[in-house]
Amino acid sequence: MKWLSLLLTGVFFGVIMTKSEAVSWFRIQEMFRFDAFHMYGIIGSALAVGVTGTYLIKKLGVKDQNGNPIIFHDKDKSFPRYILGGTFFGAGWALAGACPGPMFVLIGKGYFPILYVLLGAYIGTILYGVLRSKLPH
């Protein structure tokens, strides 16, 4: 039953991402050129839902699916770390035309060249894991 709920959640996510055009290469390039508000509206809506959800989880003491408390840890507030990471993330997003969530939606829609982007993201994740101790944090 757990796998079915995860599958249905993924399908719902894919439908929402497709219908909102968040997986559209044109919409993403439009955002990076500051030509339209469309993607900023989607990102802003997601931010509002995330902030509200986090507040409610903390306030109501919501537990995870196994009954364990959900714990939020404070983040390291290293400005250069976030500038460097955000720059790499944004550059990859602009070049590929997709961030991690839409990559899987595009695979589900049959756009298989995005597998090269997914492979690059996977290699980048492995590389970060290998180099993490040598990077400034």
What does this entry look like structurally?
- With 137 residues, this protein is mostly helical.
- The chain has one domain.
- The chain is built from six helices and no strands.
- The protein has helices at 2-19, 25-32, 38-60, 79-96, 100-108, 114-131.
- The protein is globular.
- The termini are far apart.
Write the SSE topology.
Blueprint (H helix, E strand, L loop, with lengths): L1 H18 L5 H8 L5 H23 L18 H18 L3 H9 L5 H18 L6
Helix pairs in contact: 1-5, 5-6
| Portion in beta strands | under 5%
User: What ranges have pLDDT less than 50 throughout 5 or more consecutive residues?
Assistant: none
Broad structural category: mainly alpha
Mean pLDDT: 89
How helix-rich are the residues, as a percent range?
55-70%
Shape: globular
Please tally the β strands and state the result: 0
Short description:
This protein is mainly α and 137 residues long. It has one domain.
What brief labels describe this structure?
137 residues; globular; mainly alpha; single chain
